[in-house]
Design a protein that fits this description.
This protein has 5 helices and 5 strands. The chain is an alpha+beta fold and 154 residues long. A hairpin with a 2-residue loop joins strand 4 and strand 5.
Length: 154
């Protein structure tokens, strides 16, 4: 190859390499998880989040949270870490007791929403078998994050 043909071949090669490099930087849309990867990542995240709540480790819980945190019907969302810190006891140790619930709780990954899982808890005092307190977690670009809390009875 000579002259313009060599230049064209080099330009095409450079463009191809640039496209390939861009795709490998993580800026591309993440590939969907298969069920084994999803279960493993949910389990690893859940263990970390559960332990932090049980120890009342507010800093770790905040780091594992995506703001704003929706709080269900009629309640304003928690817009930042400071608001989460102020409402921590209310979210995890108010009408429900996450320290008692979380060790036995099983994350439920929805079939319609595979990038989301929920954990449900009962009333702290004598609510029977009902589990109206629902914590929702969403898979983001930065991994799983706590994204909402609601009492489905309200």
């Amino acid at each position: 190859m000579k002259g313009p043909n060599l230049f064209l071949a080099g330009a095409l090669l450079g463009t191809s390499l640039a496209i390939a490099a861009f795709g490998m930087t993580g800026l591309a849309k993440p590939a969907p998880l298969n069920s084994t990867q999803s279960a493993d990542s949910v389990s690893a995240f859940w263990e970390k989040f559960r332990a932090a709540v049980i120890k009342s480790d507010k800093e770790t819980v905040a780091a594992l949270t995506r703001f704003p945190v929706a709080r269900g019907y009629g309640l304003s969302s928690l817009k930042n870490k400071a608001q989460l810190m102020r409402r921590f006891r209310e979210l995890f140790f108010g009408e429900t007791n996450a320290a008692q619930c979380f060790p036995k709780a099983t994350p439920i990954v929805g079939k319609e929403r595979p990038r989301e899982f929920t954990v449900s808890c009962p009333f702290a005092r004598g609510g029977g078998e009902e589990e109206p307190f629902v914590y929702t977690f969403t898979r983001t670009r930065n991994g799983w994050k706590f994204t909402s809390f609601e009492n489905i009875n309200e």
